[in-house]
Amino acid sequence: MAYKPKNNQERVIHRLKIAQGHLEKVTQMVADDVYCIDILHQMQAVEKAIRETEGVVLENHLKSCVSSSIRNGHDEEAIKEVMEVFKKSN
Which of the four CATH numbers 1.20.950.20, 3.30.160.100, 1.20.58.1000, 3.40.190.10 does domain 8-89 have? Predict the structure, then answer.
């Protein structure tokens, strides 16, 4: 039976370990002089694992920090903060 994380912190750690495993595989593949296309496919798996982890972190932030900020009348600051993250990713 597969491991099922219990909370957001465990979910993030679990996903980061998956990404780390993929990255270790890439490193080994490069050291072993594996075919470039195979390395690129493994690198895409690393990127996907990181994107999925970002999604979990963002979802948690929106549900907790942002919603709390909005309830407390700090909606402009909360929105600006999230938008800055997206601007940096582009």
Answer: 1.20.58.1000
- DSSP-derived letter for residue 65 is I
**pTM value > 0.85:** no
CA distance 76 to 89: 20
What element of type H or E holds 81? Answer: helix 75-89
Q: For 54, phi and psi rounded to 5 degrees?
A: -55, -40
Q: Would you say 81 and 58 are in contact if contact means Cβ atoms under 8 Å apart?
A: no
For residue range 35-63, list pLDDT tens digits in order.
999 999 999 999 999 999 999 999 999 99
43 DSSP assignment: H
Amino acid identity of 57? V
The residues, ordered by sequence, that sit 6+ positions from 49 with a Cβ below 8 Å of its Cβ are 15, 16, 18, 19, 22
